[in-house]
Amino acid sequence: MKKILEKYEPIIGLEIHTQLSTASKAYSSDGTTYGAMPNTQTNAISLGHPGTLPMPNATVYEFAVRLGLACSCQIRERNEYARKNYFYADLPKGYQITQDTTPICTGGFVDIEDANGDPKRIGLTRIHMEEDSGKSIHDIDPFNTLIDLNRAGTPLLEIVSEPDFRTGQEAYNYLSEMRKLVRYLEISDGNMEEGSLRCDVNVSIRPIGREKFGTKVEVKNMNSFRNVQRAIDYEIKRQYELYENNEEVHQQTRTFDAAKGKTILLRAKEDAHDYRYFPEPDIQPVSVKQDYINSVKAELPPLPSELLAKYLGLGLSEYDAKLLTESKDIALYFEAIIGHTKNHKQAANWLMGSIKSYLNEKAVAIKDFPLSAKTIAELIALVDAGTVSNSAANGDLFKALLEQPNTSPKQLAQELNLMQESDSDALLELVQSVLQKYPAKVAEYQGGKKGLMGLFMGEVMKLSKGKADPKVTTKLVQQELEK
Amino acid sequence: MEFTTLDEIKIELNNGSLSCEKLVQHYLQNINARKNLNAFIEVYDKEAIARAQQVDQKIQNKTAGRLAGMVIGLKDNLCFKDHGLTASSKILNDFESLFSGTAVERLLKEDAIIIGRLNCDEFAMGSSNEFSTYGPVLNPVNETKVPGGSSGGSATAVAANLCLATLGSDTGGSIRQPASFCGVVGFKPSYGRISRHGLIAYGSSFDQIGPFSHSVKDTALMYEIMAGADEFDSTLSRKKIETSNFDSSVSTPKKIGYLKECLDSDKLDPEIRQEVNTLIEKLKSEGHTVEPVSSPYLDYLVPVYYVLTTAEASSNLARYDGVHYGYRSPNATDLESTYKLSRTEGFGNEVKRRIVLGTFVLSSGYYDAYYTQAQKARRLIQDQTNEVFQKFDFILSPTTPGTAFDIGREKTDPTVMYLEDIFTVQANICGIPAISLPIGQHSNGMPFGIQLMAAKFAEKELLEFSDELMNKA
Q: By the 8 A CB rule, do A171 and A234 touch?
């Protein structure tokens, strides 16, 4: 690949379809539950029966506006719908309702890292609203294709990028970023394996320095981010070899065979559809006003890029900040903890340490974590005050709290006898009694045998049954000896 | 006994000399006696009687709705839950609707009795009701003539007293032209007044449901019940539906325009021209202002109508593909042959003609020359028409250039048939209300209608003036 990139510049653009997690379909009241029995999430409208009309679902604009705002897009006020006409067995109306010349969002960008980990900005061409088709199932009945129309009419956003990618890795990073974004915005579950995030790529290459673009090839049907990356890298190599052998790259649509790791011809340019787009007469143009956009903006959840910047500003390491913002729920939990404590570093340690281990071990999500953020902040405070040792807090006390999540950490620490003795007055008595017990050793110490410190400390610990706060104790012993 | 208005029926229902059950029996006899008209595709005899008994009970209990005693028929492109629905096309063979459309629901709620579904041109495409998989409908006035189309069955059923009123749909004149040919009142409300939920789409931005009856008053009552926003059709207006007041003593002088170019056209039957001229003079003498208005876009009306409606139709009819419901060719072997054979065998010639035309005008390379141009022309026609209504209350014209023609004539040359639409398409292009009133009587024995158009959403004024005109005629 390195050799190829020295001679050629790949030009890659991505089209993502993200299924919106609205309760009902784009143009009817049908449900959108994934995995329901085939053809049960359907009424006459999504079946495309004669006499039915689409009625737009307002949540779809809201979600489109959320994504548009998050990507700094321009948002169009007057939104028209269009029909894209083609015949397919899982397209019950014989056309898809989409947007053609008036996409709801234009422009905008998403920041990612390139293959070297350097920041890179990917431009967006447009984001538009459309509806999904049903599913054709070819592998259940050996003689027939079965049609499931549960998905027909589910709302989608199509996100078209500028051809700003140069490698498969960049595409992978962009997809990860986009998935994170739609999940943060709560507009889609972003699951590629369930088909709620799908991606087509356009790949061409050109000799470095040449202005004219090479012939574009579209690749479809990748079922994971990794396969998108593989398909792109394969396609770059395939086109490179064609160029090197003085063969022509044909404009075509190809599909990715993950098992073979190859792209395969699906259809040539001559077989391309004429979709006969025209304005959808059944839906009045929808007006998205600035007031509305402002209200969506006001309700917008924190974005991963904003949180990342915030955490770096709090002094967290880049590694910690990235881990914390990887998932919105983790980030929100972190936000909640730091609402109760100023010790941000400890909050991150707790979350990425004991809490993460617990979640992994129990295979539960942070949403189902039994302890409140406030409880974690109290634990941090107990350690900071020296009341409980760090190891006790992360060990026995944490375990006990998980059993009794509604008890206060301090009370539980007392019950379990995990409190460190850091009450100076009480400790002072212990220290003084130890020093009185060993007058000779005290004299030796004062004579310069500083190594005796360990003896005094050990004795104080013994008297306190191990609960004396070592820091405080050391200070008190020194203070008494140097009197 | 023959009834022409709901009021006449209500008087007898109230004084006990008639019951809804007897009324339905009476209509069933009429339907049976004139089966040869081929107006009904299916008669819901038992169901209509059962429902009549229920309505009779309601009348006794004084809980009956406003349409108690109104027996109606539905054009076969209107959805009625669990009843057949084919748009007179083989491609919807044996199809039954899963739901009732809004208009039908609202009539039922007021206790209308549905007696059957009515023949029409396939997918409402035609002006003679000859393009139906069930065969042509005959004009009840003269059975050698067509009833007009596409709502030919709906017009014939009312004219022949097979029921009191019917519903049709009007995309370019499909209510008004057959009303004119059969001598009944046919009304197309403004686009956006009556929900299209439950109407099989032909030209979505033109289609509108409307009633046929013998009187403007019954027309208005049905319209007022059916009209108004629902939760299924986003193109509906939220404007208030005003109730017409038929007290003619409050009538005021109106400003009426008439299309001079149309009246002068040599395509217009001279007797019809004479009748319109007489009417104009009469209206003037009664104190109304009647003036010619120019129609600079007259030559564009029919082309704009055909380019845009066929474009929409080519897409609207894509769903009839043999895959999901309706007719599937027994000769199909795979997906492509399912499409090709089912559609070739399932659609009639006129429908195919329009699908091909519509597909052509939307195809890449031709789109701008046809579809985009037609959209622009539509806008110009709308603007010009709105301008006329700044000055005039109504536009008066004949509904059709001639009276009902002979069965068989139009099948030979479709372009002759397309000219039937010249007076009627403007209302659909502009989305304005228009009505055909059965005022004319030709010496050839056939009736003909006078059409009035009004500004968008001026149904109340249009219906009130129509009633006045009918009463004077």
A: no
**Chain B contacts to A (CB-CB under 8 A):** 77-79, 85, 87, 92, 95, 97-99, 101, 196-201, 203-205, 231-235, 311-312, 314-315, 317-321, 323-325, 335, 339, 359, 362-364, 367, 371
Residue B71, both tokens? 């027996």
State the distance between the two ends of chain A, measured CA to CA, in whole angstroms: 74
Residue A143 CB coordination number (10 Å) = 4
- Cβ contacts of B314 on chain A, cutoff 8 Å: 85, 276
pLDDT at A433 over 90: no
Dig out the tokens for B272 from the structure.
């019809």
User: Which residue intervals of B317-456 are DSSP H helices?
Assistant: 335-346, 349-362, 367, 373-391, 414-418, 425-430
Name the residue facing B234 among A95, A276, A284 (closest C-beta): A284
User: Quick one: which of B440, B322, B453 has its CA closest to B393?
Assistant: B453
The CATH H-level superfamily of B6-226 is Amidase signature (AS) domain (3.90.1300.10)
**For residue B248, pLDDT beyond 70:** no
Q: Do A43 and B367 touch (CB under 8 A)?
A: no
Q: What are phi and psi of B48, to 5 degrees?
A: -65, -40
CATH code 1.10.10.410 region(s) in chain A: 424-481
Strand pairing class (A78-79; A105-106): unpaired
Tokens 């009480």 — which residue? A426
In sequence order, which residues have a C-beta less than 8 Å from that of residue B24 and are 6 or more positions away? B48, B49, B52, B71, B113, B115
CB pairs under 8 A between A and B: 101
Q: Which site among B81, B316, B338, B368 would you substitute to test the A interface, given the most A Cβ atoms closer than 10 Å to its Cβ?
A: B316
The CA dihedral of A324, A62, A290, B376, to the nearest 10 degrees, is: 140
**Domain A424-481, second-level architecture:** Orthogonal Bundle (1.10)
* pLDDT at residue A457 greater than cutoff 90: no
- Strand order from edge to edge, sheet including B185-188: B40-43, B113-118, B71-75, B165-170, B208-213, B185-188, B434-441, B447-454, B394-398, B255-259, B289-293
| B342 has catalytic annotation | no
- CA-based max dimension of chain B: 71
Distances (CA, A) of B177 to B131, B180, B183, B405, B466: 16, 5, 10, 12, 17
Summarised one tens digit per residue, pLDDT across range A119-175 is: 999 999 999 999 999 999 988 999 889 999 999 999 999 999 999 999 999 999 999
Checking if the pLDDT of A481 tops 90, the result is: no
**Please, is B244 exposed, middle or buried when counting C-beta atoms within 10 Å of its C-beta (0-12, 13-18, 19+)?**
buried
Is the Cβ pair A95, B318 closer than 8 Å?
A: yes
- Residue A320: how many CB atoms within 10 A of its CB? 21
Task: For tokens 């200070």, name the residue.
Answer: A475
